[in-house]
Specification:
This protein has 505 residues and is of the alpha/beta class. The protein is built from 19 helices and 22 strands. The protein folds into four domains: 5-117, Cobalt-precorrin-4 Transmethylase, domain 1, CATH 3.40.1010; 122-248, Tetrapyrrole methylase, C-terminal domain (Methyltransferase, Cobalt-precorrin-4 Transmethylase, Domain 2); 255-284 and 417-502, Rossmann fold; 288-416, Rossmann fold. The strands form five sheets. The chain has a five-stranded parallel beta sheet, sandwiched between helices.
Length: 505
């Protein structure tokens, strides 16, 4: 059997968009991923559902797997011929024990690569508005571990640190915060030196406490600062009030769960991330093309009998035109046929095939599409409607009332997604309830199935369309409906709710 390979990959400080391009590619290609607890939830949801995952993180001081066992697992998986990604928070070689994990691989001639990650020592202060260097205040930066082992105090030459007069960054030092501050003062540093503790930086939960070296321990205690957090000491810490930016973004400090099918998730996720949201991609459903679909194949053979082709989703558009390609149907056969779309996104998918759209309802739902078609279709024209097996009956009910001829042919099924990495139970336990974006009733049902009976009442459910909102009500949620049935309107509604919550409304 061919020996596999191990990649030590830095996951960065938490924000999924700080993951490097190489790291993203390796996650998509990996057979197995061993990940730490400090890896951001948005990053974990990028791991394909079929990839085997092993949680080796430490939580509340309890390690899921001892370091020696991690090292041995990396070796065993590589010997089994697998592509192994060891996903580590921050950078694997900066207090990440990456060197320890390589030793056993080297001894056994296992090929490996190291993929650096953005370190929290630099990124977290940046997200808090603190430049770690500034020509007016310092000319050096020093990164120190404040980690305590077995109750011991960190072995740090505080006098040397004070003499260097640079910015001091302590990683894993929250438990030793009081000791660190007192030791620096004892070594000659000014008690009024600006200092800060930065909690969960680059994530939706990030917080900062800026004080002086003398008052920081008490301030951190009063604000109940917890790990993961870093400590920064130096004149630059006082710049946070001037340079803060992350929380000022329209959706800064928010976490949004996107439940759309994987093939449709990117557009919504990108819009939300650009506005500052931390996005967890948890596709609740997936679409599966119906195989050996004799009904649609027969319809393709008689395309010239149709006056209209009606699409109710982007998925339907993709499947239809892929069928044309696979079956060898000349696209010129569509000449003279008019096209209808339920909304702008579906219309854009049609236009991407260089085909104009002749009918889009003012309101993007099945009933409005039916009414628009009833006004546009000639009495002798027949409609082809390739859509989901379980489609809204409102469309065909209106067509029946108007005596319009149509062939309503299912081309795909919508099924509940499973096997996602980020545990939904972890989301539901979060102190700050996330927003959940629902784009259809089926995404609500899929999400509820993943929740497995958990209480969903505290979630900020934001829905496209009344039908979707009504479905959310069935599961105990208190949904808010977007003003229009569009992705842009959904995003705008999340911003509106977020602003109201910030104002205490």
């Amino acid at each position: 059997m061919k020996t596999g390979k191990v990649w030590l990959v830095g996951a960065g400080p938490g924000d999924a968009e700080l993951l490097t391009l190489k790291a993203t590619r390796l996650l998509a290609e990996a057979d197995v991923v061993l990940y730490d607890s400090l890896v951001g939830g948005g990053i974990l949801t990028l791991i394909p559902a079929g990839t085997r995952r092993i949680d080796v993180g430490k939580r509340a001081g309890h390690a899921m797997m001892a370091q020696e066992d991690i090292n041995r697992t990396l070796l065993e998986e590589a010997l089994a011929g697998n592509k192994v990604v060891r996903l580590k928070g921050g950078d694997p070689f900066l207090f990440g024990r990456g060197g320890e994990e390589l030793e056993l691989l080297v001894e056994n001639n296992i090929p490996y690569e190291v993929v650096p990650g953005v370190s929290s020592a630099i990124a977290v202060p940046a997200y808090a508005g603190i430049p770690v260097t500034h020509r007016d205040f310092c000319s050096s930066v020093h990164i120190i571990t404040g980690h305590l082992k077995d109750g011991d105090k960190p072995r740090i030459d505080f006098e040397a640190l004070v003499r260097m007069n640079g910015t001091l960054i302590f990683l894993m030092g929250v438990g030793a915060l009081e000791y660190i501050c007192e030791s620096l003062i004892g070594a000659g540093m000014r008690p009024d030196m600006p200092a800060a503790v930065l909690e969960k930086g680059t994530t939706a939960d990030q917080r900062r406490v800026v004080a002086t070296l003398k008052t920081l321990p008490l301030q951190a205690k009063q604000h109940k600062i917890a790990t993961p957090a870093i400590i920064i000491v130096g004149e630059v810490a006082g710049l946070a009030g001037k340079f803060h930016w992350a929380e000022d973004r329209p959706l800064g400090g928010t976490r949004v769960i996107v439940t759309r099918p994987q093939e449709l998730v990117s557009k919504l996720s990108e819009k939300l991330r650009r506005l500052g949201a931390e996005v967890l991609e948890l596709p609740a459903i997936k679409t599966v093309e119906i195989e050996d679909n004799t009904e649609i194949l027969a319809a393709l053979e008689r395309l010239r009998e149709y006056g209209w082709i009606v699409f109710t989703s982007q998925v339907g558009v993709d499947i239809f035109f892929n069928l044309l390609l696979r079956t060898g149907v000349d696209i010129r056969t569509l000449a003279g046929i008019r096209f209808a779309a339920i909304g702008t996104a579906t219309a854009e998918a049609i236009r991407a095939r260089c085909i104009s759209v002749d009918c889009i309802p003012e309101k993007y739902d099945a009933a409005s599409l039916g009414k628009a078609l009833a006004a546009a279709v000639a009495p002798v024209e027949r409609l082809l409607i390739p859509r989901a097996r379980i489609g809204s009956p409102e469309l065909t009910a209106i067509l029946d009332q108007q005596g319009i001829l149509y062939d309503d042919i299912p081309v795909y099924d919508t099924v509940t997604q499973s096997g996602r990495l980020f545990p939904l139970s972890d989301v539901l336990k979060m102190e700050k309830p996330p927003y959940v974006a629902f784009t259809s009733a089926s995404t609500v049902r899929g999400f509820a199935a993943m929740a497995d009976g958990a209480d969903l009442s505290k979630l900020n459910a934001v829905c496209i369309g009344e039908q979707t909102a009504q479905e959310a009500l069935k599961y105990g949620m208190s949904p808010v409906t977007s003003d229009e049935i569009t992705i842009d309107s959904l995003v705008a509604k999340i911003i509106e709710i977020h602003n109201a919550l910030k104002m205490g409304g």
